[in-house]
Every structure is written in structure tokens, then in C-alpha cells.
């Protein structure tokens, strides 16, 4: 399926990676299972990236992950990411998973940041109750201060998804949809399964996790210098926040190992063309849906 559309969310992701969003440019989008082909120069650059950040620095980054994200929000307050109004359009599940029209949905925005995904959802769909969490205390505070924050419709709490039990704030088997949007990439690959296991406990059987994140060979991955490489497909930015770039196979294996079933798992390839500068920026995202199976009867 080929679509032509501009996604606001992708331009804020571009900013996070130091890629200047260009509003004069055109872009197109393609979805599918084929990963992006590298040019010979790009393949050579990646093949030469053999030096890894020292173990000492890697351990420090892991220890300070929460602090680094909190400092990110201290520097940027709520102004960094744009609201993600695409979510309901992209993930029709949010509407489609209702068994009847005015059924109330319970969602969990895992790694909600300052609410750029959460608040548009609450505004666009009045029949949603949302749990939202993030490990940055500042981000959580910004969500609480948002004029749209209403405790009748929303509960935000601080939680490190790799170690704090979601069951302390969310009842077991109670959530209809979990959104995991550009969050797993920020987590060490060896701890990603802990996040998925945590989420599994609160998801209703038969319901889904909606995932969107960086895909393998995204332009942001190719811009990293070798001094910023942590491990295969895993890099650190200047501000200490980290980013993993997912292949569809890696993600599928990760979800399946925790007990989910795959529904959709495809690359979204976007080529943004800046005609003035003659530049083409290939963005790659992975958009997927994984289901917690119904209990055996
Ligand atoms: C790129 S932001 C995405 C925010 C939001 N989902 C959105 O779409 O706007 C990534 C978020 O993940 C959060 N995060 C990273 N690691 C986390 C962890 N272990 N537990 C909870 N949140 C985490 C960060 O604090 C940050 O707010």
C-alpha cells in the first residue's frame, strides 16, 4: 500500500535527532515488510562503525537514563514534540476495538512524555479513560499541569517501565489498548522484554499493544558518529538519551518471546525531499500491533 501524507509526529522525531524539519518539502510514505536498502556509501559507513562506547560510560548511561530524560524535559519543557494527532487515524484500532459504538475504552500511554499523544487522544475521543506513565518526574508533572488533564478521564503516574510494577497503578487485565510510541527505542535492548512483560499484565486478553518507533537504517541512525555507538543498532545522542533502531524480525522475536501474537509488523518508509537544497531524507519507522492471546478455556 502506498500513501501520500505528511505526519506531524515524524517531524518532531526528526528534531529529536537533529534533523531539521522542512515544512517546504514534499514527502511520500510507503509501508511493507521490506527493509530500507542502503546505498553502497551508507553500507560502508555502517560497516566501518566498529568502535563502541566504553563499558564504563555505557553503565553510567544506563544508571542515568531517567535523569537524562528528566533533564531533556527541563531544557525543553513542553515545547519539543508536536502533538501527535495522527494516532487515531493511523491506529484505527482505537475505534475499531470497540464491540459496541459507545463502549468506553481504557488505554495506557506507556512512556507518555508530556502528553503529546495522550491529550489529542482524549480530545478526539470522549469515550476514553487513559492511564499514562513516564519515568521522568518532570514529564509527569507537565501532564498534570496541562489544562486538559482531568482526573475523571485520566490518571498519570511516574513509573520506570523496566522495573516498577504497573499493577501498582493499573488493575490486572483491564486495558483495551496500550500505546508504545517512540519509547522502547530509548530502553536498553536487554531490558525491553521487561517492559513488554510489565504491559502484558495489565492488558486484557485479546487486546493489543500499538507500537511505532524507529526502524532500521532510518536517516537518524546513519547520522550518528562512530563514537556514539553503544551496540548493534543502538546509539547515544549528545544529551545522553539513547536510541535503538528496530528491524521487524527483532521486534517480532521480542514480543513473541513474552507471549504476544503478531497482528501487524511493517516498515513505514518516508522520503522527504527538500527541493531547494536538493536533499532527500529517508525516514524509516516500524509500525506494529501485537496481541495478548485469549486465555485457553
Ligand atoms: C520520545 S519520548 C515519546 C513520548 C510520547 N510517547 C510521545 O509519543 O510523545 C520517549 C519517552 O519515553 C520515556 N522513557 C524512556 N525510558 C523509560 C522507562 N524505562 N520507563 C518509562 N518511561 C521511559 C522518556 O522519559 C520519554 O518521555
From TrEMBL:
Protein keywords: Methyltransferase, S-adenosyl-L-methionine, Transferase, tRNA processing
The UniProt transmembrane annotation reads none
Q: Which domain of life is it from?
A: Eukaryota
**Every Methyltransferase type domain range:** 108-206
Under Gene3D superfamilies, the record lists: Vaccinia Virus protein VP39
Key word Transport present in the record?
no
Q: What is its EC number?
A: 2.1.1.-
Does this entry carry the keyword tRNA processing?
yes
Question: Sorted alphabetically, which Pfam families does this protein's record hold?
Answer: Methyltransf_12
The broad enzyme category this protein falls into is transferase
UniProt xrefs under InterPro entries: Methyltransf_12, METTL2/6/8-like, SAM-dependent_MTases_sf
Function recorded in the entry: S-adenosyl-L-methionine-dependent methyltransferase.
Family per UniProt? Belongs to the methyltransferase superfamily. METL family.
| Protein name, UniProt field | tRNA N(3)-cytidine methyltransferase
Q: Which organism is it from?
A: Phrynosoma platyrhinos
